[in-house]
Each structure stands twice: as C-alpha cells, then as structure tokens.
Design a protein that fits this description.
The structure holds two protein chains of two kinds. In chain A, about 35% of the residues lie in helices and about 15% in strands. By secondary structure, chain A is of the alpha/beta class. Chain A has one domain: Rossmann fold. In chain A, helix 1 packs across helix 5, helix 3 runs parallel beside helix 4 and helix 7 runs antiparallel to helix 8. Chain B is built from ten helices and 13 strands. In chain B, helix 4 packs parallel to helix 5, helix 5 runs antiparallel to helix 10 and helix 7 crosses helix 10. The longest helix of chain B has 25 residues. At the A-B interface, helix 3 of A face helix 2 of B.
Chain lengths: ~350, ~350
C-alpha cells in the first residue's frame, strides 16, 4: 500500500513510519524539516516531502497516489492560536484536498485521550470509546481544544464525503526521551511530586502504538471505528516510575501525594480564583481540578475494542519496552513530544 | 464614554484578534456583527466563541453586516486593500501596524478616509501601556527637564517565530527590513508620541545576524532627531533577555520604562546632592521589587503587554462616534511612517 503520513518526523510519526515499512508498505512522509537521523529516512521505500500541510502544492500529488493517509500532524505547544493554525487549519487544508478526490484514500486520524471528559466519570470508573467528550475544552487548555476541533473536522468530512475514516485515540505515548517525567506532576532536580501514585498511567509504548496505527491501515472492519490505544496491563503511576528508574532513566525522587489531597489543593485554588480573580486566574496543571483529573484521576482504561477491531495486542510489555527505550539509538528517534 | 453602540466586524481571526474581540465583547459601545477569516474553521470557531456570524469573504461580510467600524487584523501585505474596501463600505477602520507598506501608501489611504468623512487608526497600542502613560506624564510635567535623548530598544528572539518559518512565509517579507520593520512602527510611534519638534533624519545599520533568509533582517541600530532629542531605535534578535525598553534622558532627570516586564523608574535629584545617586538606587530597588510583585499578579490574572489595546480601542470608538479625536492622529501616523521609511532606506530586502 502507498501510505502518506503527516507529522512523520515526530516522535510517534517516526515509529509509525518504521512500523509501516516493516509491514511492507511504501511510505511518503510529510515533514516540516529534513530529518536529522538516517533510520528510517534513508530507506528506498520512503519518500520524503519537506513541506507544510497548509501549503498543498508540495504534497497534493502524494495524497492523490495514496491508499491511506495517516494524519499525525499537530502542534502541541504554544498559544491557542499557534496550535489552532498547526492542528486545525492544517487539517482543514488536508481535508480540502481529500474532498476533491473521486476515490479518496482511507484516513487514519490520530486523536488523543485528551478529548475525554474526565470530570464526568466517577473515581475508579471506566473510560472507554463511549465515554463523554469534554464540553468546555477551553478550560482544559489549547491542546485539548484544538485536538477536539480537529477530530470534529475529520468526522464531519467523513460524514459529508462518505470517505473511510478510522479515529485512534492513543493514551500517553512514551518511549526514549518521552518519559512523562516518570508520571511526576511537579519535577525538580532532586524531588518530584507523584500525584495519584496508584492511578493508572493510561500509557502506551510508542512502538505498540505504532503497531495499532499500522493495523488500522488495512483492517476492513476499522472503517468508521473510534479506538482507544493503551497498553495492558496498565501500570500505575508508581509502577511506571519504578520501571523507568529500574532501567536507569534519571528521575528525581518521588514524593507520593494521594489524588484526593491534590484534588483538595486544586479545590482551594479554585475557590481563591473565584473569590479574588473572578475565575480568571492562570493555573498550572497541578492546581487546576479539571486538568488534574485528566492526568491523575484513578480510572480504568480497557483496550478490548482495540484488540477486537484491529486484532492488535501490545508487542512489548512495560519491562520489555523500558529496556528497548533506553537501549535505542537516541538519534533515530524524533523530537520529544510536548504532551 | 460612547453614547450609542456602533456595529463592528473583525477581518482576520489570528492571535491579535483575541485582544480586539475581548474588548468588543466587553464594551457596551460596540456590537459585533461578524468575523471573517480565510479559514472556515477559524472563522467558525471565533464566531462561536464571540457569538456572532462567521464569514470567509470580507466583501460578503461588509455587504451583509453593514458595519460602522472594521478591525483589519490580517497580515500586513493585505492591510491597505482591506482598509480601502472597509472605507468604501462606509466604515471607520482600526488597522494593525504597519497600516501601510510605505508613507505614500499610507497618505493615500488616509486621504481616502478623509474624503469619506471616516477615520483610519493604526494600532500603536504601546502608547497606552501604563509605563508609557507615566513617562508621557513625567515629560509633560517637566520632571525630566528638556529631553535630550530617547532610546527605544527591543530584544526579541525571532529565530523560532513565525517570521522565520520557511513554510509559512514571512508575512512582512515583502518589506525592506522584514520582521524588524514590522515592529518598527511601535518603536518610532512611541518616539513621535513622546517628543515634539522638527524631525531630522539620521541613519540606520541593519543586519541579518542569524542568517535566516525568511527574516530578511534581525538586527537594527538606527537614530534620528526629534526636536531637541537624539532618538535611538534598536532591535536585536540575538540579545537576551527579551525586553522592550524605553529610556528618556532629560536635563533634569531620566526615566526608564520596560513594556514587557513592566516597570518604570524616574531618576531625578533626590535628597542631598552628595547622596542623590545612592537614594536613587534605593528608590529604584524598591521600585523594581514592587514591579516584580505586580508583574507576578498580572501574569496570574492574564494581564499582559497588550493591556494598551483596550485603551486605544476605547479612543477609536469615541472618535468613530464623533465624541473625541482619534487616539492616534493622522499626523502622528504619517510622521511615524515617514521616519520608518527613512530608517529603512538601507534595509535589506528579500
């Protein structure tokens, strides 16, 4: 198959490119800057286009030739307007081109767990593909808001055009250089706060995630599906931290803070905000109840739907993944993701 | 201040539009009747947040909404054409800087407005920041004596900015001086705002230190004279920390204002002559400490360096309603544009 990948040089994009090549596909990678590493970019089955989604002139022909488009491109940091341009407007540009095609390729869209409404699920509850999406995304920050808008765009496009669409929502994608601070909420040089130490990480190792995305390229039953991608068994924040430390990842000492205590602190900050700032206070993640819940609330994250629809299972366990992540040549990975 | 509300539209829903739309939505003097952006998604998202109608064609919006005022907040190369369309539709215009690419272009735009009985105001928002207001008051009171020198210096790393994005294309790449030229109206506009007297051209040294072609230029050291003062405007993309600092030196005292990490300090004779230096240091230290707490408080409540925008817009709407003069006069805009053009004579081009 001819696979066109947007955001291909990113942390997850690089892994998806490798996995797609390993599965025997030909890949055309859209990257904003020429990749610095050799693998997989020097392979003959990879075509590289240096360009920007908002300027179709460089990539339109590649999309016309593609059997599948994997849409990974997004901006994960900066202001809401930076992220809107790089995530939503870019997607709009891609969809404009797809809409002109008589026989459009399948679109495999990579969304995120950030679109879910964590406040709507009770502690210990289950978050799955049927869970409610966040209704006030601006309260959860620019990443949540723009990824939600992006997902709405691709869904509307599929509904309007009848094109094939698979939406994958990975959890916290981790790997070499993307350690999520070992799950710590506030990490200094020597000490860090481990909020919700017994909460599940909702994590997925980058190569396992790439396997799921590549499975979605060809699986006929995946058309129209929305699929959460998380590893199992899900490590707790503490287990994740311990596993990374065990293979030598440098992390500060963890001071455990029960989720209920962190939540109470955020509640107090919220009261102060309402009383003194009229609700206009800019709060860090650890002091914002809604964002705190999205990261640390103790919930269950089943992956049965992913296993069933894609026939996927995590290739690497947490311990195996840790060993692979620290052993990998750092130059062959993409940049560290911001989220 | 304004008796009845005026209808308004916004063209261009990028980052700066946030400041304008927040003002509009909070102002009883303004009724937002449409927003326009080339991106349907961005137009729809903005319209939803500010409870108005989305458009992707500005002419269609002008015809349908029939606004009395238009905010032109698009990339600079489009400003004049959009402002002319707005004027032809009978609307007063507030436009992001630079309002035009050159002084002659601005002269024609302002003339077009005048013949229609309308106003065009360039968004020289820093004129209305707390520090600049205090500086202007101090100069007006004579605290500084006769101003003999004014430095307006910006240090801002452009290398990771949208100006340097080879894919996006520098939105001011068509201007000599590129990204630096884009900010120059702010710097020169402050000098024009703070100083009176005849203008005498000086010179300017431009450079592209980073070597990033998209920026066109990223360093500037220019000077000219306004009245009795020698004005120096400088820009550096390499220098850190990032700051926007104005220093006025007079025959009696001097005042330094920082616009991005807001602080203002007036150094004048204090105490016995032998101890003036020491007393001023103590006062400045206390002033900086107080500024640090205020800045922290402002950051927490999301009050940033754009806090002059609502004041400028308040003035714009008062002028549009015929209640007051324009917050930035046509003369000041023209004077600013002419000085910018002179400084850019030796500026590199793409």
């Amino acid at each position: 198959m001819n696979v066109f990948i947007t955001g291909a040089a990113g942390f997850l994009g690089t892994a998806v490119t490798r996995a797609a090549l390993a599965a025997g596909h030909d890949v055309t990678a859209l990257v904003r800057r020429p990749p610095q590493s050799s693998d997989p970019w020097d392979r003959s089955e990879v075509g590289i286009i240096v360009g920007d989604l908002r300027r179709p002139v460089s990539w339109r022909e590649a999309v016309i030739r593609a059997d599948v488009v994997v849409h990974l491109a997004a901006v994960t940091s900066g202001s809401i307007h930076d992220q809107f341009s790089g995530t939503v407007v870019s997607t709009e540009s891609l969809l404009d081109v797809l809409a002109t095609l008589d026989n459009p390729p399948r679109l495999v869209h990579v969304s995120t767990f950030s679109v879910y409404d964590y406040d709507a699920i009770p502690r210990g509850g289950r978050l799955d593909e049927g869970s409610r999406l966040v209704e006030e995304p601006h309260q959860r920050g620019a990443y949540c808001e723009t990824k939600l808008l992006q997902e709405r765009l691709v869904r509307r496009h599929a509904a309007d055009t009848g094109g094939e669409l698979v939406v994958l929502r990975p959890g916290a994608v981790w790997g070499h250089g993307a350690w999520w601070d070992g799950g710590l909420a506030v990490a200094g040089r020597r000490f860090g706060l481990a909020f919700g130490p017994r909460s599940a990480m909702k994590s997925v190792y980058v190569e396992n995630c790439a396997d799921a995305i590549v499975a979605a390229l060809v699986e006929p039953d995946a058309d129209g599906a929305t699929i959460n991608v998380v590893d199992d068994p899900q490590p707790t924040q503490t287990e994740f931290y311990v596993a990374l430390r065990a293979v030598g990842v440098e992390l500060p000492r963890a001071i455990p803070v029960p989720y209920s205590v962190a939540r109470a602190f955020a509640f107090v900050v919220n009261v102060v905000d309402r009383l003194l700032f009229g609700g206009g206070l800019r709060k860090p993640e650890f002091a914002d109840a809604s964002r705190l819940a999205a990261r640390y609330k103790p919930l269950r994250y089943p992956n049965a739907h992913c296993r069933h629809v894609l026939g996927w299972e995590p290739r690497f366990s947490l311990s195996d993944a840790c060993v692979r992540a620290v052993a990998v040549d750092p130059d062959s990975h993409g940049p560290k993701p911001q989220r | 201040m304004v008796a009845s509300s005026l209808t308004s539209v916004v063209i261009g829903c990028g980052m700066i539009s946030e400041q304008h739309l927040k003002f509009i939505s909070a102002s009883p003097a303004v009724d937002l009747v449409g927003v326009c952006d080339l991106s349907p998604a961005r137009a729809a998202w903005t319209a939803e947040r500010f409870d108005t109608t989305a458009f992707t064609d500005h002419r269609e919006m002008l015809a349908a909404a029939e606004p009395q005022t238009v905010h032109v907040l698009t990339p600079p190369v489009t400003h004049v054409a959009l402002a002319l369309d707005a004027l032809d539709a009978g609307a007063h215009v507030v436009v992001e800087k630079p309002a035009a690419s050159s002084a002659p272009e601005l002269r024609d735009l302002l003339a077009h407005a005048t013949t229609r009985g309308l106003i065009v105001v360039e968004n020289q928002n820093y004129r209305f920041n707390d520090g600049v207001l205090r500086l202007r008051e101090a100069i007006g009171r004579g605290d500084l004596g006769e101003v003999v020198g004014l430095d307006v210096a910006i240090a801002l790393d452009l290398t990771m900015s949208p100006f340097a994005d080879s894919h996006a294309g520098n939105p001011v790449g068509h201007l000599a001086g590129g990204a630096v030229r884009d900010l120059l109206p702010h710097q020169v506009g402050l000098a024009v705002h703070l100083l009176d007297g005849p203008y005498r051209a000086g010179g300017a040294a431009w450079a592209n230190r980073s070597g990033i072609d998209e920026l066109v230029a990223d360093e500037l050291d220019g000077s000219f004279e306004l009245g009795s003062a020698r004005v120096r405007v400088s820009f550096s993309s390499a220098a850190h920390p990032e700051r926007f600092r104005v220093e006025a030196r007079g025959t009696r005292g001097s005042m330094t204002v920082d616009l991005w990490q807001p602080s203002a300090f007036l150094a004048i004779p204090r105490g016995p002559a032998q101890l003036t230096g020491v007393v001023n240091q103590l006062v400045e230290g206390a002033s900086l400490a107080r500024a640090a707490f205020v800045n922290l408080y402002d950051k927490l409540r999301d009050r940033g360096p754009y806090h002059g925008v609502p004041r400028l817009l308040d003035g714009f709407y008062a002028a549009a309603a015929g209640l007051d003069g324009a917050p930035v006069s046509a003369d000041d805009m023209m004077r600013t544009a002419r000085i910018v053009d002179d400084l850019a004579i030796e500026a590199p081009t793409r």
